[in-house]
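Students often ask why inverse folding is considered easier than folding. One informal answer: many sequences map to the same fold, so there is more than one right answer. In these notes we will look at a single instance of the problem. The structure comes first.
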């Protein structure tokens, strides 16, 4: 392993993957809570003048600087090509890939869920533009988009941003989900996620003609939800205009309603999608970070969820009405 290159290692005990990243000790100090970011405005690396001054590599900019994509200074994946696959007892893939950050707004204090529809559509269209570019590169099989918000969500910078990571393989939960979708199709000849929209009635948070939001039956986390297009769509680029609008507005509604229900909390959302697998039904998962992982979760990968998903859904529907 090169001293500065990362590596995707398979844990021989479980088959789980870990990205081993050297040299991350220089990462910015984690914030206590996102609002503390206000104190750090002067040092914020996502202000336009800082981006210019530090000569950060700009991948895309929506003029006049309404949002911008830069290369992540602290990448998880930075290995060199050609890809290397280590087989045998210690198996690994070289940590090749791209890490980018979409700075959603020039306003240090504006929150994702408070952006207007125009900005939200710019957000999703910018992601699509970046995905198109990243998927066109050699060795890239999966582009992952996610947001970390707040210290417990793993955010190290308060200024609203989304992360994009382009991977050399489809790994982990996405791989498991794909297998589930395939098995379900084989048995039922229908799409698992489309059937979920029909069967989850008790746990539907809301729906429009084109999208549905659900608190899934077996949710791992309190207040976990997902929002998905009703039509079978593999990845962002295939969404039509109505689906894009309903997805971004729905995502904001979920975050806003969660804040109303649980108070200001850290959260993550992750866009699950696949360009290469036709069976894959894209969806966005949202996890409010209301508790820490403890022994049962870490030791057994069995999650303890103290909020019954159908009760969360019921309360969500009542709360949403008054948002
Ligand atoms: Zn800022
Ligand atoms: Zn489907």
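Output (designed amino acids):
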């Amino acid at each position: 392993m090169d001293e500065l290159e990362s590596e995707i290692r398979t844990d021989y005990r479980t088959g789980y993957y870990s990205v081993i990243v050297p040299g991350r000790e220089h990462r910015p100090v984690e914030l206590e809570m996102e609002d503390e970011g206000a104190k750090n405005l002067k040092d914020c690396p996502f202000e336009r003048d800082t981006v210019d001054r530090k000569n950060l590599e700009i991948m895309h900019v929506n003029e006049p600087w309404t949002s911008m994509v830069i290369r992540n200074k602290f990448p998880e994946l930075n290995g060199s090509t050609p890809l290397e696959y280590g087989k045998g007892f210690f198996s690994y893939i070289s940590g090749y890939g791209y890490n980018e950050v979409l700075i959603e707004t020039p306003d240090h204090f504006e929150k994702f869920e408070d952006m207007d529809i125009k900005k939200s559509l710019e957000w999703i269209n910018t992601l699509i533009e970046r995905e198109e570019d990243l998927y066109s590169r050699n060795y890239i099989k999966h582009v992952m988009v996610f947001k970390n918000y707040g210290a417990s969500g793993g955010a190290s910078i308060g200024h609203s941003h989304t992360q994009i990571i382009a991977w050399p393989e489809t790994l982990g939960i996405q791989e498991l989900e794909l297998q589930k979708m395939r098995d379900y199709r084989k048995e039922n000849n229908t799409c698992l996620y489309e059937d979920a929209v029909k069967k989850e009635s008790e746990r539907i948070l809301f729906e429009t003609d084109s999208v549905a939001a659900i608190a899934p039956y077996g949710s791992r986390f309190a207040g976990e939800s997902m929002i998905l297009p009703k039509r079978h769509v593999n990845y962002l680029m295939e969404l039509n205009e109505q689906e894009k609008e309903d997805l971004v507005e729905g995502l904001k509604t979920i975050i806003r309603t969660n804040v109303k229900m649980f108070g200001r909390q850290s959260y993550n959302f992750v866009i699950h999608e696949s360009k290469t697998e036709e069976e894959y039904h894209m969806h966005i998962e949202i996890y409010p970070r209301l508790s820490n992982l403890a022994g049962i979760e870490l030791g057994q990968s069995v999650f303890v969820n103290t909020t019954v998903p159908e009760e969360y859904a019921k309360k969500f529907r009542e709360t949403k009405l008054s948002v």
